[in-house]
Amino acid sequence: MADGPTARRLEGKPIADEIRAAVAEDVIAFTAEQGRPPGLAVVIVGRDAPSTVYLEQIIRGCAKVGIDARFVELEGEATEASVVATIRELNADPRVDGVIVQMPLPPTIRLRSVIDAIDPDKDIDGIHPLNAGLLRLGYDGFLPATAHASVEILRRSGIEIAGRDAVVVGRSAVVGMPAAFLLVKEDATVTVCHRRTRDLAARTREADIVIVAAGHPGLVTGDMLKPGAVVVDVGINIVDGRIVGDVEFESAARVASAITPVPGGVGPLTNALLLTHLIRAAERHAAVTAPAPAAGR
Ligand code: ADP
Q1: For the chain, what is the total number of helices (H) and then of strands (E)?
Q2: Which residue, judged by its Cα, is nearest atom 7 of ligand 1?
Q3: Where are the alpha helices (DSSP H) in the chain?
Q4: What is the enclosing helix (H) or strand (E) of 237?
Q5: Which residue has the least CA distance to atom 20 on ligand 1?
Q6: What is the distance in angstroms between the CA of the first residue and the CA of the last residue of the chain?
């Protein structure tokens, strides 16, 4: 007789709903105080990239809570100079509080030039080197939303992080590395694995917490886990028309004590957290652009 899954499912949606409700209230207060809603600009170069669907979701999510979010669309032939010039205009636009740039960019455009052009105070997805550096030093900058969500789902599900052994599979600048730094900040002992790691299973079997962000469906299976481990699956892969994560859910759920499903785990939380980053950017932006009180009053 095959054993069924015993792991608790860590659902992102209820947490995301809670966060969105709080954001909606913050948006109302901000709009009343400032006489304008918080503003998000999403720079896209053509609408063909698969990430456009994800970005459309973000725009819809913003509209639902009263944030003024829009695409700023450049033609498919856009040059690096035109993308950088567009970002600079948005940096200077008083109605824009946050800027996101669609990734990946066309190969003719250097990622570094684009990232460096974003005003770090409007960089709500934490890709600018200043925000990456702040995270590295343990200060409060803007966090990459997906990495933030992968750790926030543990916190909000009441899973203890301090003192536990964590393995992060993947060392990307947007997910793996920032997730690892966040876990260290939460007092976990962290190992980062990547494609040159010699024996991945030996590493993951030692871990109380496993965060997987490698972009490979089924990379982590139940036999690679310590019984009772907590598994966060950041992967989003399309296999036979279905969305699956980097973890083989069936086998992992029989061994783990808790696991995030894909879809429905980290994904919904990522979008909701991005909204909280935008509110924070808007409040800071309003504070620095507020007119100085008139003298003598
Ligand atoms: P993401 O955006 O999900 O972080 P990237 O493609 O940027 O994805 O990075 C993939 C990461 O996954 C890299 O750091 C790579 O080293 C890691 N990775 C890929 N394949 C494996 C593997 N078989 N075992 C361990 N790590 C892997």
Answers
A1: 10, 11
A2: 172
A3: 13-34, 51-64, 80-92, 111-117, 129-136, 145-156, 176-185, 200-204, 249-255, 266-289
A4: strand 237-239
A5: 195
A6: 79
Q: Assign domain 33-121 one CATH number from 3.40.50.450, 3.10.20.30, 3.40.50.10860, 1.10.287.3510.
A: 3.40.50.10860
Q: What is the CATH number of domain 144-266?
A: 3.40.50.720
Query: What is the pTM for the complete model shown?
Result: 0.95
Distance from the CA of 204 to the center of ligand 1, in angstroms? 15
Q: Mind listing the pLDDT tens digit of every residue in the chain (297 residues)?
A: 456 789 999 999 999 999 999 999 999 999 999 999 999 999 998 887 778 888 999 999 999 999 999 999 998 689 999 999 999 999 999 999 999 999 989 899 999 999 999 999 999 999 999 999 999 999 999 999 999 999 999 999 999 999 999 999 999 999 999 999 999 999 999 999 999 999 999 999 999 999 999 999 999 999 999 999 999 999 999 999 999 999 999 999 999 999 999 999 999 999 999 999 999 999 999 999 887 776 655
Fold match between domain 33-121 and domain 144-266? yes
Residues within 6 Å of ligand 1 by CB: 169-172, 174-176, 193-195, 197, 200, 213-216, 219
Could you state, in order of their start, the residue ranges of all structural domains in the chain? 33-121, 144-266
Residue 292 has what DSSP assignment? P
Q: Which of 53, 58, 44, 55 is nearest to 105 (CA)?
A: 44
CB 262 within 8 A of CB 243: yes
Token code pair at residue 237: 């892969």
CB distance 54 to 125 below 8 Å: no
Query: Helix, strand, coil proportions of the chain in percent (round to 5)?
Result: 45, 15, 40
